[in-house]
Design a protein that fits this description.
This protein is of the alpha/beta class. Helix content is 33%, strand content 21%. The chain is globular, with a radius of gyration of 12 Å.
Length: 72
């Protein structure tokens, strides 16, 4: 887990992942810029983007986009 997009990119660059989850809600951001940077650097790693309904955007960068609040 990384507290910022910059730190996340550094961490992802030194480890191998099967899945990347961008929890933009926790970071209080749309997460779009972070998702773009991660996807450019690691296009083959699946990504889940958790985004606030307030930032809803039709641009699909992640493989799956979930909107908060999440319900079971």
């Amino acid at each position: 887990m990384a507290p910022s997009g910059k730190q996340a990119l550094q961490y992802v660059g030194t480890h191998k992942f099967d899945l990347i989850v961008v929890d933009a809600v926790s970071m209080r951001t749309s997460g779009m810029r972070i998702c773009r940077m991660v996807k450019q650097s690691f296009p083959d790693v699946p990504m889940i983007h958790i985004q606030s309904e307030a930032y809803r955007d039709d641009a699909k960068i992640a493989d799956v986009t979930l909107y908060s609040p999440l319900t079971a």
